[in-house]
Each structure stands twice: as C-alpha cells, then as structure tokens.
Amino acid sequence: MRALVFPAILVLVMAVIGHVLTLHLVPSVIMGTAMNRLAAQGAALHSFRLAPRTTPQTQLVVRPSPDLAYSICAYHLRGPQPLRIRAAAYDDYGSISFFDARTNNFATIRIEETAPDSSGPDILLRGPAGGEPDGLFDGHDLKSPTPRGLILIRRLAPTQQAYDRVKAIASADVCALSSSAGTISE
Amino acid sequence: MLGHSVMVLILRSLALTLTGLLLGGVSAFWMSGLFGAAPVTPASDISLEGWVSDWAIGSTSANAYTRARVARHGLLALAKEEAVYFIRNRDDDGDPLKASCHYELQGGRQDAAWWSITLYDEESRLPMNDDEALSIDATTVGDADTWTAVISQTRPEDRLWLSSRGAEQFDLTLRLYRPLPSLLATPETRLNPPSIRKRHCGAGS
Fold it and tell me: Which domains does chain B show, CATH number per domain?
C-alpha cells in the first residue's frame, strides 16, 4: 500500500501542473496561431487590412459575424515607439477593439464618439516598455499589457452594398509606428 | 545492479510524470469545453430560456476556463460593455438543433443598439453553403415589435431565413452590441430571449 503513495502523489502533482499549464498556454497559443494565419493571408504588421466580406468560404477565425466588416492590424511593440491608430469615421455602428496576446479585450473605442466631420478617433498605443505621450497629444492614450496583439475595427455591413461603403473608406484607416506622439513614420 | 535499479526508478518516475501531465492537460481541455463542439458549458454563468452567456468574456477578470473556451470558440470577443453574446444549441423541447429539422425562430426588440443572430456548425464555423442566409439582424427585421424566421435547409417563400444547410448539428449566437446598462444589470428581466420551436424533422427540412 505504502509503495503506491509516492506514485499517486507524483501523478496528482503533475496532473495539477499539467492542468494549470494547459489553461495558461491555450489562449496565447490560439491567439498566436490566429496572428500567424493572418500573416500568411498577407496581413502586414502595423497596417490595417480590410478582410474580405465574411462568408463560409472566407472565414479566418471561429464565429465571425457575417454582418460586420473587419479591418485588422497586428502589432508587436518591442521598444518605446508607440503605434498611432485612426479609424475613418463611419455613419453606422463601428468600434476599434484592442486584444493582447492573452486574448484580453483591454480597450474598445467607439468610432462615432468623435465629431461627425472629424477623421475618426485618434489613438496612441504603447507597448509595455513604451514611455508617456508628450503633452500635445489629446487623443486616447492606451497601453498594451503584452508586446504583441491585434487591433480590430468592426463596422456594421450586413449587405454587399454596406460592405462596399466600408471598402470605400477603410483605406483611410491608420495603424503605423509613430516616432513621437505626434508624427507617423510610415 | 544499483545502476539498474536507479534506471528503473527514473523511468518509472518519468512515466508517472508524463501520465500526470497528460491527465492534467486532458482534464483542462475537457473542463474548458475545448474538445470538439462545446461552446456551451455548465461554467456559463447566465442562462435564460436556453440562451447561455458569460459576462466575463473578453475581460481580464475572466477565469482560466472561460478564457480558454472563448479562445477556442469565440476568439476576439468583446467585453460586455461593448457586446454580449448568448449561445443556444437546443430547441424549446430541449433537443439538440439539427439541420435535418425545420424550426421557427421567434423574437422581439432587444435592449441594445444593434443585435444579430448567426448560425454556426459544430466546429464554431459558418456552415459551408452559399445561401447567404446565415444571419438575421436588427436591420433585417426593421422596427417590428416581434418577428419570426425559419431555420431550415431550403429557402422558404417570403420569410426571414437562417440556412442550416451543411451544418448537421448547429447552434445560434445572439449578439447584442452596445447593451443598455439595464440589460447588463438584470438580464433575467431585460433580455427578450427568442424561442426556437421545432416544426418537423426529416425530408424537406
């Protein structure tokens, strides 16, 4: 009987470690896979790309909404340089959401929160090692909990016509490294 | 002789270690609903007439099981202040939703800026068909207080339609964007959960 105690304890301790480790790693691994898949589809780092209209044939991630148009920007903020983000104004539902490498939605900003005649919300995203923005910046100042992550613009587009409207404005979306809080180095 | 005993002890410990790690990993997958089609698990914290949700989705406060399940079945989901998600995989009789059956989906207004209902297959993907009928949303039903849609494999005449063609078993996701604070505070009284009535099963569904 005593001979079974050590093996039982070892299996139990390892099971707990395996359980916790799996739960910890799964979100990061799935997020990393999604980012790699986006890169394989031609999405560049630090640049918004409007995904094709969501259909069964074009879906890239699980449970996409066919009613929304998605623009995606992957980031990797290793140093102090922040990312400057701007979503072109849209006259229907629209949001910019930020996801860290652990899948946390650490910020969401509504596109229509800005004046109708403006070019959309102005956002500065800093990595964990990023410094403070200069005093002149008066937009949204965000800090990513992890160096890597994804930025997603969702715009309501339940029809081909609506998607085409998004397509016409999405080229004005900006996701680019900024040399300082005020200038974009594209 | 001693070397042999030590080697046996090391190999036995290694086998036990691997067995433990494997058991831990498999149990984590099972408890998070990571095996196959399990977007709905007992861990979901809100359940209203078969529609289940978890207010912690997308948030840093989500527990490890929710986080893993969402990564697998709903990657890039928003936090509840922007959107809440309800999933339902059974009809009003409690039976699993199947493409071989014909259903009537009935709903009404929601306490949100915009809503949609989308059909997904067992792998949490849009089923492979070209019917362009995988979702209905607030813009589709207009200002109607109540609306009715058909879920079937074939297009009905003059009815709102969700196509289940190519799905076998499926589930529905109700998305509520910009939910009103009242809905977030008391979903049990503020959500208007759509009903799913089975009409018939078999050929012609």
Answer: 79-201 (2.60.120.600)
ipTM of the complex model: 0.78
Q: Does B152 touch chain A (CB under 8 A)?
A: no
Record the tokens describing residue A146, joined without a space.
């992890």
Instruction: Write out chain B residues lying below 8 Å of A106, CB-based.
Output: 60
At B198, the amino acid letter reads K
pLDDT tens by residue, chain A, 186 residues = 677 888 889 899 999 999 888 888 888 888 888 778 777 776 778 999 999 999 999 887 788 899 999 999 999 998 888 999 989 888 889 999 999 988 888 999 988 655 455 666 788 999 988 777 666 667 788 999 999 999 999 999 999 999 999 999 999 999 999 875 444 444
- The CB-based long-range contact list for B147-150 (8 Å cut-off, 24+ gap) reads B147/B106, B147/B107, B147/B108, B148/B104, B148/B105, B148/B106, B149/B104, B149/B105, B149/B106, B149/B117, B150/B102, B150/B103, B150/B104, B150/B105
Helix (H, G, I), strand (E, B) or coil at B179: strand
CA B40 vs CA A126, B89, B170: distances in Å: 36, 8, 12
Number of domains in chain A: 1
Say how many Å lie between the first and final Cα of chain A, rounded.
70
Write out the residue range of the structural domain in which residue A144 sits: 1-186
Nearest to A19 among B28, B58, B129 (CB): B28
Between chains, do B76 and A18 touch, taking CB under 8 Å as contact?
no
Mutate to test the interface with A, among B8, B11, B16 (most CBs of A within 10 A): B16
